[in-house]
């Protein structure tokens, strides 16, 4: 347009994130995008650099507010940082003359600028960090400033060991617990985020020490009462942090789980003997003078056999296998000391049964400990996205041990219900695993409720559930039914296709996840009603279904080239293989579009959404639906349709070959002539 001083101007997207158009991203402009002419990023950076140094507080506040908004754009951020703009932000904070709105905008701008990774967190000055820490430690301070300060510290912690030690020293756990007790849910969330970041960055010894202190400060009871059972609904972020806290707590058992028993350790041998003494002390009480060593040894072996150890002469051998290692011994000792009546009843009841029907306490305890470790993922790294915590975990001290006490009694109960013998040991434990997992899936809020529900789910109930599930899965395999099944398939596949496209038209809320930290930014994507354009754009928290007009970005379906899933996606390749997270891989997919082969990257919120979107996108690309959900849905629909069609044939056996057609009759005189009747 031949504008004078053209370098002072730039084009910018009018909607969405309002990013500047540069040589590197000009190819991403879509037909129909609205752009406006605005001041160039370097001019804006120049103006705001001067504005934030102004002595006029109104000008300064407005400049910082605009800076916080514009810093989201990578081009502007680079220009501002190149002018040493961060130094000005540091000086505003370090001088400490401002509070409230000006300080909040300053910290927000700093966060956005650091988000682009142009500057290392390790370059921050000690004075700046001390100021940020002081805002967190102040009793009376603007909540928005404290939230931003906590976020800044949360980002500093994983970036270097020095910063981790500094933050851990300056921000006490007690201070974070104070922030957790406020009614402001955002401040509560940021405090929890910093606490989790500190725990994840700590060494094993430091983590152990921090968790011991948190236990001492009753964080579990506080979370159970004020966060899980608060009037406010639990958000995704907080659910994730509670999952991580639960995972870290359970992983404290990993060391014992992976340590086999040492037969030369006096302490471990004493623990083993305490099990025998707690069960059989009155029976075996005799003075050493009256009983020979040989006699005592054979008596101990007999008692260890009654306790259910396989190697009764050297029971330590049963605990050589790790996992579950010493954790199984800890659980048995905890059970014998904290529920002595139940322990004595278990051992004595089984030692008086016939040999082939006795339930071996020790062998069952070792296997049950292993099962609980697998179900609760003890020793596994935390997932980046999971939110599956158990509310009852925060409702109970010594959760793992208390859960074991309930489940070992369940083993005995199920053993009796199944009238099991030693040969049925694996079958019984398989049923117990099913009882535990089915009950845990109901998310009981307390261990008492878990105990009630798991005991109601007895062996006969498990058999009924298995039978029902088998009936749902089984199909009649007669040839005519298989032929009917094949005929119904195309019609039902079309129904699934329609459902997938309708789901894409409704759209889904996706979460952005960066390699550095869990993001709380959301975006929405949906298909246009005519199935020709994909609309997407950033949305605010709490928006469930934004109208299609509010989504600024578009991809015509005709421009889509391919669908990538899992490891093929560019956003999963960016992350180092060491940190690669299995469940993110399972939920990742990307669309390759346009001549330049750009990619739109997704991480589905659930496996179900992943299946719906990959199926829908494959259809739009003219390919087959390949997800496991397609097969499941098809099986369910086929099963229902077949049952409806075969209702009239209930209890009638269907032959594999059709019956032979009889020969035609010698005459057809038996036919009634309707023409005479009509006349």
Which tags fit this structure?
679 residues, alpha+beta, Leucine-rich Repeat Variant, PH-domain like, 3 domains, 4-stranded antiparallel beta sheet, 3-stranded antiparallel beta sheet, 29 helices, 9 strands
Topology at a glance:
Elements: E1 9-13, E2 35-39, H1 41-51, H2 57-70, H3 74-82, H4 85-95, H5 100-114, H6 126-137, H7 143-156, H8 161-170, H9 173-180, H10 185-201, H11 204-216, H12 219-228, H13 236-251, H14 254-257, H15 266-284, H16 293-306, H17 325-338, H18 340-351, H19 361-375, H20 399-417, H21 425-440, H22 447-456, H23 459-473, H24 479-506, E3 508-513, E4 518-527, E5 533-539, E6 553-556, E7 560-565, H25 570-573, H26 582-587, E8 588-593, E9 598-603, H27 607-620, H28 628-645, H29 674-678
Helix pairs in contact: 1-2, 1-3, 2-5, 4-5, 4-6, 5-7, 6-7, 7-10, 9-10, 10-13, 15-17, 17-18, 17-19, 17-20, 19-20, 19-21, 20-21, 20-22, 24-27, 24-28
What report would you give on this structure?
One of its GO terms (molecular function) is SH3 domain binding. Helices cover 55% and strands 8% of the residues. With 679 residues, it is an alpha+beta fold. The protein has a four-stranded antiparallel sheet with strand order 3-4-5-6. A three-stranded antiparallel sheet has the order 7-8-9. It has 29 helices and nine strands. The longest helix is centred in the last third of the chain and has 28 residues, at 479-506. The N and C termini lie far apart (93 Å). It has three domains: 6-252, Alpha Horseshoe (Leucine-rich Repeat Variant), CATH 1.25.10; 258-281 and 294-471, no CATH class; 488-632, Pleckstrin-homology domain (PH domain)/Phosphotyrosine-binding domain (PTB) (PH-domain like), CATH 2.30.29.30. It has helices spanning 41-51, 57-70, 74-82, 85-95, 100-114, 126-137, 143-156, 161-170, 173-180, 185-201, 204-216, 219-228, 236-251, 254-257, 266-284, 293-306, 325-338, 340-351, 361-375, 399-417, 425-440, 447-456, 459-473, 479-506, 570-573, 582-587, 607-620, 628-645, 674-678, and strands at 9-13, 35-39, 508-513, 518-527, 533-539, 553-556, 560-565, 588-593, 598-603. The relative contact order is 0.05.
């Amino acid at each position: 347009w031949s504008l004078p001083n053209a370098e002072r101007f730039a084009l910018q997207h009018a909607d969405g994130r309002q990013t500047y158009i540069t040589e590197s991203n000009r190819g991403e402009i879509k037909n129909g995008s609205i752009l406006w002419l605005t001041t160039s990023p370097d001019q804006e950076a120049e103006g705001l650099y001067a504005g934030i140094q102004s002595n006029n507080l109104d000008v300064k506040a407005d400049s910082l507010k605009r800076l916080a908004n514009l810093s989201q754009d990578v081009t502007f951020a680079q220009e501002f940082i190149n002018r040493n703009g961060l130094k000005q932000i540091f000086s505003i904070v370090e001088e400490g003359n401002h509070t409230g709105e000006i300080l909040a905008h300053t910290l927000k701008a700093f966060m956005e600028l650091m988000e682009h990774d142009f500057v290392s967190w390790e370059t921050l000055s000690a004075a700046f960090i001390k100021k940020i820490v002081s805002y967190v430690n102040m009793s009376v301070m603007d909540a928005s400033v404290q939230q931003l300060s906590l976020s800044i510290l949360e980002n500093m912690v994983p970036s270097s060991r020095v910063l981790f030690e500094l933050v851990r020293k300056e921000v006490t756990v007690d201070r974070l617990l104070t922030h957790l007790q406020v009614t402001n849910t955002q401040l509560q969330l940021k405090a929890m985020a910093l606490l989790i970041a500190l725990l994840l960055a700590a060494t094993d010894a430091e983590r152990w020490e921090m968790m011991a202190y948190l236990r001492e400060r009753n964080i579990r009871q506080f979370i159970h009462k004020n966060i899980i059972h608060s009037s406010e609904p639990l958000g995704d972020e907080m659910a994730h942090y509670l999952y991580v806290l639960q995972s870290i707590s359970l992983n404290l058992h990993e060391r014992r789980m992976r340590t086999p028993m040492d037969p030369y350790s006096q302490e471990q041998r004493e623990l083993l003997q305490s099990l025998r003494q707690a069960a059989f002390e009155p029976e075996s009480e005799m003075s050493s003078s009256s009983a020979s060593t040989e006699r005592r040894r054979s008596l101990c072996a007999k008692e260890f056999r009654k306790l259910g150890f396989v190697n009764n002469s050297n029971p330590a051998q049963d605990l050589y296998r790790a996992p579950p290692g010493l954790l199984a011994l800890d659980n048995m000792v905890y059970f014998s000391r904290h529920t002595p009546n139940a322990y004595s009843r278990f051992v004595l009841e089984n030692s008086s049964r016939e040999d082939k029907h006795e339930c071996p306490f020790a062998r069952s305890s070792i296997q049950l400990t292993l099962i609980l470790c697998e179900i609760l993922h003890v020793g596994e790294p935390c997932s980046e996205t999971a939110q599956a915590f158990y509310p009852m975990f925060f409702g109970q001290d010594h959760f793992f041990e208390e859960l074991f006490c309930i489940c070992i009694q369940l083993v005995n109960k199920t053993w009796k219900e199944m009238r099991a013998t030693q040969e049925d040991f694996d079958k019984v434990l398989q049923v117990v695993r099913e009882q535990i997992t089915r009950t845990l899936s109901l998310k009981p809020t307390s261990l008492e409720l878990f105990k009630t529900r798991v005991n109601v789910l007895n062996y006969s109930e498990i058999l009924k559930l298995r039978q029902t599930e088998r009936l749902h899965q089984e199909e009649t395999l007669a040839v005519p039914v298989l032929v009917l099944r094949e005929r119904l398939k195309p019609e039902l596949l079309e129904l699934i296709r329609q459902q997938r496209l309708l789901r894409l038209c409704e759209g889904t809320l996706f979460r952005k996840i960066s390699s550095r930290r869990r993001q709380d930014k959301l975006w929405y994507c949906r298909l246009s009603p005519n199935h020709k354009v994909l609309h997407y754009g950033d949305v605010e928290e709490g928006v469930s279904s934004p109208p299609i007009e509010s989504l600024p970005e578009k991809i015509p379906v005709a421009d889509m080239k391919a669908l990538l899933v899992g490891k093929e996606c560019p956003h999963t390749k960016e992350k180092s293989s060491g940190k690669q997270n299995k469940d993110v891989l399972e939920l990742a997919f990307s669309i390759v579009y346009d001549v330049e082969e750009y990619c739109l990257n997704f991480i589905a919120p659930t496996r179900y959404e992943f299946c719906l979107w990959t199926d829908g996108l494959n259809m739009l690309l003219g390919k087959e639906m390949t997800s496991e959900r397609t097969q499941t849905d098809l099986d369910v629909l086929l099963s229902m349709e077949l049952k409806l069609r075969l209702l009239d044939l209930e209890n009638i056996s269907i032959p594999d070959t059709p019956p032979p057609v009889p020969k035609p009759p010698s005459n057809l005189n038996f036919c009634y002539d309707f023409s005479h009747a009509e006349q």
